[in-house]
Amino acid sequence: MTDTNTLRVAIVGSTGYGGVELIRLLQSHPRVEITSVISSSSAGAPISDGFPHLTNIVTRNLDVVNPAEIAEVADLVFAATPSGVSAKLVPELLEVGLKVIDLSGDFRLKDGGIYEQWYKHPAPSAELLEKAVYGLCEVFGEEVRDVDFISNPGCYPTATLLGLIPAISAGWIDASSLIIDAKSGVSGSGRGTSLTSHYAEINENFKAYKVNKHQHIPEVEQVLTQVAGEPITVTFTTHLVPMTRGIMSTMYATLNGPYTEEDFIELYRQYFKDRRFVRIREQGVWPATKEVSGSNYCDIGFAVDARTNRVTIISVIDNVVKGAAGQAIQNLNLMMGWEESLGLTFTPIYP
Ligand SMILES: NC(=O)C1=CN([C@@H]2O[C@H](COP(=O)(O)OP(=O)(O)OC[C@H]3O[C@@H](n4cnc5c(N)ncnc54)[C@H](OP(=O)(O)O)[C@@H]3O)[C@@H](O)[C@H]2O)C=CC1
Ligand SMILES: CC(=O)N[C@@H](CCC(=O)OP(=O)(O)O)C(=O)O
């Protein structure tokens, strides 16, 4: 620490969407100083070369990935690196005494065998999978306090779990009936270009992908199983939408009793009482991705259908903020014992 008020942080993966969003959000954080922005491909260059929107805002050059050097200038590292890269990098960062908040999927699953089945590459050590604390702030916020290693939840799981956990915990919905229909903007796939994120493939198109094979399925199931105390499996379909930011998770479940929309609204308002980043819509009003864009909010609305005895729950987040950089900073605040909204009170950008 430079003084008792300021935490020095480094960002590995500063040239990706998650890293650049961390840089943007941390400009407004009163207790954090960014002391190193790191890239494996562009070290030495000013970050504003690749990101002119940072001109006169961040004047640093990009640093190399060297854990010992990072430990000399920083107390904590955000690893905004791809799956597989984090698995190798995080143990090295912890080894030199750094605190770590990892944005990848590498440390979210507790069972290495399940990780390898879904991610298709070797799992981190069982010891580190055990050590990583899963930082879904509004549910496990107490558990991240004072730890030195947090695994930040996935974007789809954040929207989905916040939408389902209160109803599952209360036993109001049949856990064997869950269907999740999720849609993401293209920034969710990262900055690297690929055929699937190519303009001509995305523009005026809407497509399903990784159906029944998405790596976030076991993450959602792991947490719901933990909350329910019984094994839960889900049907989970992901879609790519021609927009830049945003996730909408639409969830369908059979009701276990005659619960109304008013009941759901009251249940969720109680569950998320005092948690400023979850907002529950009034009856008959459903959230849209633009209503949370650029912010750390997760907004949730409900529709109960007495004809089918099902509830539809609609949850939206900004994938790069609440689904990545914003929740990572919220986790930092909780870890440090600071007010959880410190530096995160952005109003959504509208329109
Ligand atoms: N985009 C999103 O909405 C979300 C992303 N995530 C997760 O966050 C992480 C970052 O995602 P995102 O920013 O979108 O990804 P990007 O592809 O946009 O960026 C990845 C970053 O990692 C760096 N990197 C790549 N290889 C290495 C390496 N070997 N060593 C060090 N750094 C490396 C890249 O920069 P360089 O080549 O310059 O080193 C780049 O800065 C991923 O694990 C992703 O799954 C999680 C939730 C939401
Ligand atoms: C639109 C899009 O492609 N989204 C990505 C989300 C990637 C991501 O956030 O991955 P982790 O949470 O596992 O780190 C995907 O569906 O794989």
Please tell me about this protein's structure.
- The structure is a single chain.
- The chain is α/β, with parallel strands linked by helices.
- It folds into 2 domains: 7-131, 3-Layer(aba) Sandwich (Rossmann fold), CATH 3.40.50.720; 156-319, Dihydrodipicolinate Reductase, domain 2, CATH 3.30.360.10.
- Helix content is 31%, strand content 20%.
- It has 12 helices and 14 strands.
- It has helices spanning 17-26, 47-50, 67-73, 85-95, 112-119, 126-131, 137-140, 155-170, 199-202, 216-228, 261-271, 321-336, and strands at 7-12, 32-38, 62-63, 76-79, 99-102, 133-134, 149-151, 179-184, 207-209, 235-240, 247-254, 278-280, 298-305, 310-317.
- A 7-stranded parallel beta sheet has the order 3-2-1-4-5-7-6, sandwiched between helices. Strands 9-10-8-11-14-13-12 form a 7-stranded mixed beta sheet.
- Helix 1 (17-26) packs across helix 12 (321-336).
- 45% of the residues are buried.
- The model has no long low-confidence stretch (mean pLDDT 97).
- The structure holds NADPH dihydro-nicotinamide-adenine-dinucleotide phosphate and N-acetyl-L-glutamyl 5-phosphate.
- NADPH dihydro-nicotinamide-adenine-dinucleotide phosphate binds next to helix 1 and helix 12.
